[in-house]
Amino acid sequence: MSKFGKVAVLMGGKSAERAVSLKSGDAVMAALIRSGVDAHAFDPAEHPLHDLEGYDRTFIALHGHFGEDGTIQGALELLGIPYTGSGVMASAIGMDKWRTKLLWQAAGIPTPAFELVTPDSDFAAIEAHLGLPLFVKPACEGSSIGISKVKQAGGLSAAYREAAQYDSLVLAERFVGAGEFTVGILGNTALPIIRIVPANEFYDYEAKYLRDDTRYLCPAGLNAAQESSIRTQALQAFRVLGGRGWGRVDFLMDETGQHYFIEANTSPGMTDHSLVPMGARAAGISFDQLVLQILEMTCVE
What we know:
By secondary structure, the chain is an alpha+beta fold. 34% of the residues lie in helices and 21% in strands. The protein has 10 helices and 13 strands.
């Protein structure tokens, strides 16, 4: 489509999520080419960013550091090249689970209780305060990399060391165990909710990208009023961070039916296992249509 001009699909990059990003980028590239867009793969780990001069817009299929944390967005702002998804501020905040939760708390959006963990923390006190089991995660990493579930007293120390390999900022988060869900965001619309049912203990990297026995339920089994209310609040949660264009918001539910948002993703996966395409499909939007709609928003922002 000539109205988009020459499009660079940014994929790969330098983060721990490089392999997933390459898969997302390949899927986006194929969809754009099928739709007649002049699309070209561009890996920032292999080419200097000034090589993007001459492109009319970019589709960001990068994940993790240097891709969805505001850095590439800032570079594209300086180059004057329109790009998909959220801007610098929202990308940086969305990548940081701690600051995301602080903003949500301030806005009255429910999120599980948590504590920052440092080498000097009283691990036993944190376990007692949050209860067991609990989750430990790097604050600024994606794809469930570095996450551990602590089930026994005394386990927080090892879980902290695992997470700290990926980020100096580590969160311990209260376990909420009656279901994991996600909501895709497309423009001003929250897509149908998806319930995630992993075959292993939790929705880790393996369950997300490597296993074929993870179940995705859409409809998610919520009643109509609950689905509508949560989708509305998911859009609000995304907007509180400054999110725009497209993204995804994940939440957990407890045994009483109360939901708790855990994180936002401003550059979600676009692989064959990815969640936003599933939600879009449930809304009657094909993968190729989804990719074009995301790219279309670079023409008006």
